[in-house]
Amino acid sequence: MFNKILIANRGEIALRIIRTCKEMGIKTVAVYSTADRESLHVRFADEAVCIGPPPSKGSYLNIPNIIAAAEITNADAIHPGYGFLSENSKFSAICAKNKIKFIGATPEQIDGMGDKSNAKNTMKLAGVPTIPGSEGLLNSVEEGLSVAEKIKYPVILKATAGGGGRGMRIVWKPEDFEEEWNVARQEAGAAFGNDGMYLEKYIEEPRHIEIQIAGDQYGKACHLSERDCSIQRRHQKLLEETPSPFMTKELREKMGEAAIKAALAVKYEGVGTVEFLVDKHRNFYFMEMNTRIQVEHPITEEVINYDLIKEQIKIASGDPISGKNYFPAMHAIECRINAEDPYNNFRPSPGRITNLHVPGGHGVRVDSHVYAGYTIPSNYDSMISKLITIAQTREEAINTMERALSEYVIEGVKTTIPFHAQLMKNEDFRKGNYTTKFLENFKLV
Fold first, then answer.
1. Active site residue 292
2. Whole-prediction pTM value?
3. I need a labelling partner for 23 at 20 to 30 A (CA). Which of 298, 301, 336, 343 fits?
4. Which of 292, 336, 365, 394 is catalytic?
């Protein structure tokens, strides 16, 4: 087991990792930018090293500074959390070169799944259902038009290096193809430095359902059931729940088996997620694989009593997994509480939190790094906390969430609390009747 782990991240996930390390008797090193000097992960780690200025490029994405921090503190492992360098194959390889264990996927696994076109081909060979589309990257508009004619409109253009909805365009008819192709390529090139595009059949009214997986260094893999992430805005998740209200026992088993096939196909090591689109007829299709811990991992932890951060650390240290598949025994919901103004198109609202009251009571968990007097920087993601409720049934979990949201007081900045409070009262949501398009017709009052 490791003696000391450096956490190459910030905010609530850095604090989350520190807590598990303390329980395991492992020393921790926090790294921070000058904007995060007063952050709780800096206070609670055993050691802390400043790695640069507020912009991520000079700090949390600064590989030489992070490696130097690990070396001067004698850290023998680095946990990247999510975002930043968590799916950076170069960083994983540099860690290995410097004899520092990267708690995550290998460079080969990251590269294999990070390029969406290659990932799709790998999944096809593994027998995992994939969305009909182009065979690899498109070379021209003409090729794209030819593929679209075969698989029928609507189709969706996707950046091979994409994420967060950037470099994606839906095309409803042939006359619009070239214009959308040019816009998508330009956006992808600017965002990712890679304008490679591929094409898929556009699945209308889909659910976004992901399967949590774990794999070890000895060729074993298991799944830890599903999370429904369909409540999202511009491809950014706002709420997740497990189990999915759309799921059946048969579908859960099929998707679990497919996720294990995906993990074994790349000899996956660590904790990760296989994401699927599920149509209204419950046909499911591979979308992508995330080779890291997910923001929404706590709801899985709560319904199966399983510390996923601890599992990541144990796998990285060489421990085998049991190979047992897990199924939810309870229901859990996570609301992402962001410093955004839901009444003003979710505009970011950085600033100083002047007053804070965090909800509690039975069935409530809050993962957060903020406190009264804390200033939310404008340089990073706007997440304030993850509010999680756990109960025996979905209805009870929603009712507990309603109560917890009514107790949650954050003053000084705008937050998404009012949005979630109204969502809990929405009749279609309460019935589990929603897709990824749900928020397009949701009116905040």
1. yes
2. 0.90
3. 336
4. 292
